[in-house]
Amino acid sequence: MYAGEVHHGLALHDPDGALEERQARTSPYPPALAATIVRRYRWEAGFAVTTAAGAAGRGDLAYVSGCLFRAVACLVQVLFAANGRWFVNEKGSVAEAAALPRTPAGFAAAVDAVLSSLRPDPATLAAALTAMAALTARVHDLV
């Protein structure tokens, strides 16, 4: 996030060029960083979905919701890195990720459908996890 802030930053006053010098080090996006982020967060998205299965069976809406949010946040990280784009903030990141060139079609709509369907009953939560697992697989296949 800090590197992203530097990369996207706009200097209002930088007489010594300190920001410009730091920005030069953020382009191009480091391939090794992209590979590491993709590997780590792609795995973590799947893990978040898998670990929520038991809680879904108990109708634990809060826990499953948290795991689903974590999975979405991880998928966003993967998509930003796969597109060589610096990530800065979670706010609006699903829509931003959906607009990137290497993103599964309907990414934002799929996220919205999963999260808007949640209710504290096992069948609904299991269906949400199944849908998120499918979206995670689509991102995995893409990157």
In short:
This protein is mostly helical. The protein has helices at 2-8, 18-24, 31-51, 53-57, 61-82, 93-98, 107-116, 122-142.
CATH architect. name: Up-down Bundle
Average pLDDT: 92
What is the β-strand count? 0
The H/E string reads HHHHHHHH
Let me know the largest β-sheet.
Answer: none
Structural class: mainly alpha
How many domains? The number is 1
Q: Choose one word for the global shape.
A: elongated
Number of helices, where a helix is a run of at least 4 consecutive DSSP H or I residues:
8
Termini gap? 21 Å
Which bin fits the share of residues in helices? 55-70%
| Percentage of β-strand residues | under 5%
Stretches where pLDDT is under 50 for at least 5 consecutive residues are none
CATH domain topology:
Four Helix Bundle (Hemerythrin (Met), subunit A)
Kindly provide the name of the CATH class.
Mainly Alpha
Measured on Cα atoms, how large is the radius of gyration? 17 Å
Structure explained in plain terms:
The protein has helices spanning 2-8, 18-24, 31-51, 53-57, 61-82, 93-98, 107-116, 122-142. The longest helix has 22 residues, at 61-82. The protein has one domain: Four Helix Bundle (Hemerythrin (Met), subunit A). It is an all-alpha fold and 143 residues long. The radius of gyration is 17 Å and the shape is elongated.
